Amino acid sequence: MDLKHHYYYFKESIPKDTCEKIISLGEKLINENKEKGFNTNAVTMGGEEKGGHNSGNFSLNDKTLEEIEKEVKPDDVYIRDSEVSWLNEKWIYDLILPYVNIANESAGWKYDWDWAEQIQFTKYGINQFYGWHMDGGGDHFSTYKRYISGITNLDKNGNVPMQYTDNINFIGKIRKLSLTLNLSKPEDYEGGNLKFDFGPHTTNKRFHLCEEIRPQGSIIVFPSYLYHQVTPVTKGTRYSLVIWCLGKPYK
């Protein structure tokens, strides 16, 4: 699908002190979860996160399928390396969701959505990254399914499987719009850029390094079906917030 606007951004829209407040909150939750013995590694659809592999020293980042097939075994491949915690504070939803509505209208997408998922706080340290992926598909196979205790099979770790939920507001819906809020000061890290792949037949340049949102407090909104990545952090730490907005499949 070719779009006039593949993304819509708001530069330095969130105050710096608010960004620092969110960083403190997210870091506190990560540390508390570690103290409780919980795994704070980010989880990827399909289990291709670093924590799911023993060696985990090869990234899908900027690799072609042919290169991967020649160089590594499938079990050694992962596409994500970061730490996360989850936020439910109403004031954060109230702060960032209006930007989704503005972007959705201004960019001309006008997608129907009616619910937002839990807010993900993400921490990328040295050499951490998120390889090429999309946040959600657009068809009925991509919808959230109902989790029924005692009937739905749990995954290998005993958790509710991906794409299943007991939240009635998610069931039958897909991710339509994604929002990222950059919480870090640009001088606090190097690398860690959001990068898009608009596809081989796009009317504009296929790959785009999104440096527009490097200033602290900048927000970007984009359709969840667009392929994107976070390039490896080469210095410092990058903090961000991510939220996904849900709606019925396209028809």
Describe the structure.
The strands form five sheets. Strands 1, 5, 6, 7, 11, 15 and 18 form a seven-stranded antiparallel sheet that branches. A five-stranded antiparallel sheet has the order 4-8-16-13-14, with no helix packed on it. It has a two-stranded parallel ribbon with strand order 2-3. It has a domain at 8-15 and 84-247: Jelly Rolls, CATH 2.60.120. The protein has 251 residues and is α+β, with helices and mostly antiparallel strands. It has helices at 16-35, 65-71, 90-106, and strands at residues 8-10, 58-59, 77-78, 80-81, 83-87, 115-116, 119-124, 129-133, 145-146, 164-165, 174-182, 189-191, 194-197, 207-209, 219-223, 227-230, 233-236, 238-247.
Lay out the secondary structure.
Blueprint: E1 8-10, H1 16-35, E2 58-59, H2 65-71, E3 77-78, E4 80-81, E5 83-87, H3 90-106, E6 115-116, E7 119-124, E8 129-133, E9 145-146, E10 164-165, E11 174-182, E12 189-191, E13 194-197, E14 207-209, E15 219-223, E16 227-230, E17 233-236, E18 238-247
Parallel strand pairs: 2-3, 9-10
Antiparallel strand pairs: 1-15, 4-8, 5-7, 6-18, 7-18, 8-16, 11-15, 11-18, 12-17, 13-14, 13-16
